[in-house]
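Hello again, I could really use a second opinion on something today. For a while now I've been wondering how a particular protein folds. Please have a think about how the structure follows from the sequence. Here's the protein in full, and shout if anything looks odd to you:

***
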Amino acid sequence: MARLLIVFCKNPQLGKVKTRLAKTLGDETALAVYLKLVNHTQQVVRDVNADVAIYYSDYIDTEDHWEKKYIKKLQQGTDLGERMYCAVSEGLGMGYQSVCLIGTDIFELTSEIVEQAFQSLEKSDVVIGPARDGGYYLIGMKRADARVFEVSQWSTATVLKETLRNVKQQKLSYSLLKELNDIDDEQDLRGTDLWR
């Protein structure tokens, strides 16, 4: 089964990444944490048995540390849901049978968890990795459905609940992965190896 792993990546610009973290720790620390998270994600991605596409937030950076062999694209759409749907839809349109999408905020993410997501898609229509804050860190699909991504407000504690409701309304089968911690603010950071 042809697999594609999409990574949503914000271009690392001072004052534009980890803004909730920056409120208490400052822009420089927030950027440093973000770069560590990106580095961790790069290591995770390297060990996954799938093609990889990096979807940038603002511009395609050909000089960054993501491997040259990866597909590089720009995110399209007005909100996060639309951008994710467009990316998943595009991946499936390129001939991949299963597509998983992750961000760069999960320090607990491992290549084994991503592999498990792809394996889950062999028996389910959708796979979701729940985050402790009520959102999700991974979504995977075998066919794109825009309605799954229709959430009233992103970055809130109801994102996962609304997404699962949408999946059930579309009569899609789904699997859930292990719950992980999303690094958004100082509280999330404490107790991790990122806290130095």
User: Anything to note?
Assistant: DSSP finds six helices and seven strands in the chain. The chain has a mean pLDDT of 93. The beta strands are 3-9, 51-56, 71-74, 98-102, 126-130, 136-141, 174-176. The chain has one domain: 3-189.
